[in-house]
Specification:
single chain; 228 residues; alpha/beta; 6-stranded parallel sheet; two-stranded parallel sheet; 9 helices; 8 strands
Length: 228
Amino acid sequence: PILMYHYISIPPEDADVYRTDLSVSPDNFRAQMQYLADNGHTPIDFYTLSRAITNHEQLPPKPVLLTFDDGYLDNYENAYPILREFGFTATFFIPTEFIDTNRAGYMTWPMIEEMAANGYRFEPHSRSHPDLRERDNDYLIWEILGPQETLAYHIGYTPRYFAYPSGRYDDNVLAMMAHLDFWGAVTTYAAAEQGFNNRYEWPRLRIRYNTPLGEFADLVNLILPWEE
């Protein structure tokens, strides 16, 4: 399973339904990580997943991928310390323009560099988080290759995975993923099958504000309600 998080914080009182739904409180996040630790689940990164798919390398017991979209400040302030406490790796998808412009509520490059130095993975989530559908190739290169190169400058290696902004993409975007030699990309579709043939459309399981621990346990154990 690839789990999808956004905010790790309590929504403000004036939060709209979207901000609320995309939030997981630090207490709930800690409880979820405790569940993984107590039940033998091992967080891995996408590079490990790709090696398992292409080279048939053995995965650790009960592997799970933890992903965080958008680069919010609370990922550094709240998620990062909890992940380190448990010794868990994770992947953060970053819209690099938000970091370049020091947008309020988002991480900074020194934060990202610190986390990368401690083994956390950072991958592009486009440059400015637009809808990538029905765009020409120059635009896609600007929004896909550009942030890949920006991240490489800050983290010391070329990131090879991508998260589509708001989960939106089309055939031209998929072709650009292959043209730019990305090794995989994630969607917002809810499923849990990863392979080589769907490497540019890997699904994820969204963790929501109101996801109870029992439902979280079902998701990481791949007891999926739509398959029952």
